[in-house]
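cron nightly-structures :: item 1 of 1
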Amino acid sequence: MICLQGGAEFGSSCVDMDGSLLDRSPAGDVVILAGAAAPGREFDIASANAVRYYSRLTDRRVVAPQDPRIDPAAFVDAARSAALVVLPGGSPARLLDVLVGDVLDALVGVSEGGGTISGASAGAMVLCTYTAIPGGGISDGLALVPGVAIPHFDGSNWWNLDLPDDVPRWGLPECGGVVFRSGSVVALGAQGAQRLDENGASPVERSPL
């Protein structure tokens, strides 16, 4: 499974959504990769917040390896036992710079091995075919799921993206989003996940994972 969340992660309104993802993930660890945060104090705070939140939701081991910009091998090692990798928000450009080489290979390996990847805000943006970089236009994303993510979506903040009409735009509400699994896409969490195209907006169907 790959989950794209709109943001406001680690709040009480996200508990049911994240608990559902945990329940449907295989056995293994929860691994936090706060690479969208700036190195140093910001990274440490984002990692600690995520560890604290997920430790309340599960008895699984929850780990936040050292910043890959300092020690990429730490994330690679942690990913070997990961059932769920969490990518919190921040800067999508910064996160794309982190997800390269062995770190990217390890993340993709989690997904290909049946694990779950959950990205919020910037974390969701980089998982798509394209990533809209604030102030920087459109960048190639990781293409683990099709389209482009629009986080913090409230029904009005449509972005004028210079992309072909057939590229899906996923409008992701805070504490909600969409899950890709076995070729299907379903809404999860807070109401309001939309697929946006030249014809307007259509709600993403809500159904069990």
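cron nightly-structures :: done
The chain has one domain: 2-203.
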